[in-house]
Each structure stands twice: as structure tokens, then as C-alpha cells.
Hints:
By secondary structure, the chain is of the alpha/beta class. It has helices at 4-13, 21-33, 36-52, 72-75, 90-98, 126-135, 149-162, 187-195, and strands spanning 54-55, 62-63, 80-87, 104-108, 140-143, 168-171.
Amino acid sequence: MTPDAINRLVAQLAKLPGIGEKTAQRLAFHVLRSPADYARGLASALLEVVDKVHLCERCYSLHDGAPGTLCAFCTDPRRDDRLLCVVEGIADEMAIERTREFKGRYHVLHGALSPLEGVGPEQLRIRELLTRLQTSDADEVIVATNPDVEGEATALYLTRLLKPLGLKVTRLAQGIPMGGDLEYADQATLARALASRRDL
Ligand SMILES: [Zn+2]
């Protein structure tokens, strides 16, 4: 019989995305075998994330400043207020940040439209985006949602809402990845790359 405490840990770990019952068991036994300080560190890191990290009230990025204050993306005076990049999630925002090419502001939707999964505009931070744009200096909105069905539907929906406001709405160019091979590109990617070709 496994002690209840272990069963409870396994059950909690198994709720994490991509972690099945077996992996959860392996992780639980790993924690048990490790020095007790590791488990204490893990537990306090989990609690710290829950207690200290929250969403910025303007852009909905993660933020560990005092509640009610704005995040570094929103307050950094060196960033360009005229450019606003809309992303589905925090990981997308981080990916764009890593390029060091974008110096505007962000808006995180926290998802993409997906009627099949019951995700409508109300479930995303779209109303907040519209409210924000009423008083912002943004003149271009870059819709950087994913190039999949949900991301495209979201981009189309946003374009219909934002264009009438007199904003320039742009989409990231898509095409052959760097180091990619034309021969192996799928049809949709190649078609997209042709359509978004640029002058040399
Ligand atoms: Zn912010």
C-alpha cells in the first residue's frame, strides 16, 4: 500500500499538462529520494509564484510588482507607445522579446478564439484591448497570434474590430523558416511565403 501522502502528491502532479500517471509517480519518487531541502525549495517556489506573480492590469503580462502597479513592458519609457503587439500567451511574448527587435508595447489575450472549445471573445482580453486603445497612443497593432486555425480566426476578428478605429493592423509575415528547405516546406507554408514575398 502506498502512503496516502504519496498518492496525494502523484494526483497533484498528474494534473500538470503533459504529465501522465506514470510520469507523476516517477516525479514523486524523485522528490522523495532528493534531499528534503529540494522539496521545501520546490514548495516555496510554487507558493511564491501564486502569491507574488499576477497579471499586469494594462497588458495582462505576468508581473511581480505590487498589485495595482503596471509591469515593466508598460512602464519602460524607452518603449514605443505607437506600436502595440497582440499575442495569444506569455510564451509568445517571451519569444518576441528574445528577438530584441520589438520595442513597442504588448497586449496578451490569454488564448485564441475557438468555438469548438467554447472560447469566445469574452474569454479573451479583447474588451480590455478595445478599452485600452481608446486612450492609447498606438497607431499600429501587430496581430501576432499563431498561424493556426484559432490564431487566424482571432486575427480576422481583431482586424474587423480595429480597422474601423482608424488603426493600422498588421500581421507577422509567415514563410519558410530560417535554415528551412523549400523542397520540404508544406503547401500552406510555401503558399503563404509566396503571398507575403517582399521587394529586394
Ligand atoms: Zn503591462
